[in-house]
Amino acid sequence: MFSRAAWARILPFLVYIFFIIAVDGLTRLGFEVQALRWMYALKIGAVLATLAFFWRDYTELHRWDLGLLASAVAVVTGVVVLVLWVSLNASWMMIGSPDGFDPTTGGRVDWLMVAVRIAGAALVVPVMEELFWRSFLMRWIDSDRFQALDPAQISLKSLAIGIVLFGFEHNLWLAGMVAGAAYSLLYMKQRSLWSSILAHAVTNGLLGVWIVRTGHWTYW
Description:
This protein is mostly helical. The chain has one domain (66-219). The chain is built from seven helices and two strands. A two-stranded antiparallel ribbon has the order 1-2. Helix 6 (173-190) runs antiparallel to helix 7. GO terms for molecular function: endopeptidase activity. Residues 114-205 form the CAAX prenyl protease 2/Lysostaphin resistance protein A-like domain. It comes from Massilia atriviolacea.
């Protein structure tokens, strides 16, 4: 049904989702959320290993193709998405009540746990998600030969579907849609996956810093 190139972009995402489901299942079986915190490190390690296994298939990432201006636009986009992400938090903009990720033990922050969380969110998750949502899904909706489709030619239908699905992947669904729209339009405009990866990384990295400074652990 799918080519190797498609599976190379799907499997890292499925590995990530598997761990989310596993942690949820273990929580329902009575395991304390705090006791499962290091599952995040296992999740990121598994995703990273999957990305490394398929690296030769990610031809669009084999060279950095962003100029200074394009990089600056991506960074600014990432910052704007962060501001909107922490602002679009009304009750009707949320799905459920997330437990978040609390790296404190006995009131003290476990800085190794924080470092792993921020590194995973800023360096691994953006690559995994952009490969799946932007490089694969948005183009695949338009064409089975998705690798041959120029990002600038992605249809409005694919753009809309990608934005909605990306939004509902997150508890903050409206913020997720805003982020999905920003990263998608950036990808289509600059025709570089590194552009959306950079913006996504800036958002996630700065969000991690903001969470630690404010103690709003539910945003994780």
